[in-house]
Amino acid sequence: MNIASRSFFVTLFSILQLFLSAQDISGVWVGNYKPSFFTATPEKLVIEISIYNDSLITGASHLYYKHQQYEHYKIYGAYKKQESIIYFSEDSTIAVKLGPMDENCPGRYTMKLTSTGNLLEMTGKWEDNSVSIFQCPPSGVWLEKKSNEKIKQTNSTPKDKRLERISDIQSLVEISSIEKDSILIELYDNGIVDNDSASIYLDDSLLLYKQFVSGKPVSLYVSLDKQRPISKLKLVAENLGSIPPCTVLMIISIKKKRYEVNLSSNFNSNAVVEFFLKE
Asked: Are 257 and 275 in contact (CB under 8 A)?
């Protein structure tokens, strides 16, 4: 290879690295593990990623199996922009529903970011992060999302610094398509009434602003966007009351089902309830 050709490829590689390092990896990634003879492969793997301080990763992983079985975990990790490498680990369990003979295996991911057109891709490896002698075997894994993917939001307000706090996913609720337009939310102070106040956002759209919570319910109805498979209801602490943090009992009623969720928020993190629209 002559000097001119070498210089061209070095320049092209540098431009590509700059392009990848500028990509926003926040959002919902969809993919799966490579098939294995030793473990059950889910029908779909969904990874939610939020980025803080340009390098800290938080979010959740969702594994969907047949017969309405699933695994949901909180994730935590780091994004190395210059190397286009993403590391994250399933560090705590949100909810698991598997068969009686199945065992869940939280793990860690090491992923490489690439781009083809407007499609961002991550490929890499999943490994069991337990210290047990009998570990689940490692597996290849892939994820993808559109780099220009934007979902139209209605009734949105200008984003403020409170929404940039770390999102702490504290509960998951599955919603069918026929239930998405009639979700009743009721808020109570969870414990001693001490003048806690909070704002409520649905996918960054303001629903309640600086509402005090007490022994009497604060009620509202929400509807989910059918174009958005995952919606986030955020509890943003406005006042921690006399006994920090801001704690709220949220009762979610849909048709004949009722969920009670205990939420805790402060000035560093927002409590999040995620709604999943069933396909």
From this structure: no
Judge whether 144 and 43 are in contact, CB under 8 Å.
no
| C-alpha to C-alpha distance for 71 and 137, rounded to whole angstroms | 17
| pLDDT tens sequence across 224-242 | 988 887 899 999 999 888 8
The type of residue at 247 is T
> Which strand (E) or helix (H) includes residue 15?
helix 3-21
Q: How far apart are CA 71 and CA 177, in angstroms?
A: 21
- At 119, the amino acid letter reads L
Choosing among 2.40.50.140, 2.40.128.120, 2.60.40.10, 3.40.30.10, the CATH entry for 3-146 is 2.40.128.120
The model carries a pTM of 0.75
pLDDT at 101 over 50: yes
Instruction: Give the other-Cβ count within 10 Å of 81's Cβ.
Output: 18
Of residues 246, 249, 250, 243, the one with CA closest to residue 268: 246
Domain ranges of the chain: 3-146, 161-277
Q: Please write the tens of the pLDDT for every residue from 152-174.
A: 444 444 567 788 888 889 998 98
Residue 35: the pLDDT is: 84
What CA–CA distance (Å, rounded) separates 132 from 135? 6
Provide the mean pLDDT of the chain.
Answer: 84
Structure tokens at 144: 């993808």
Tokens 């989910």 belong to 224
Question: CA-CA distance, 116 to 32, in Å (whole number)?
Answer: 19
CA distances from 92 to 32, 105, 106 (A): 20, 11, 8
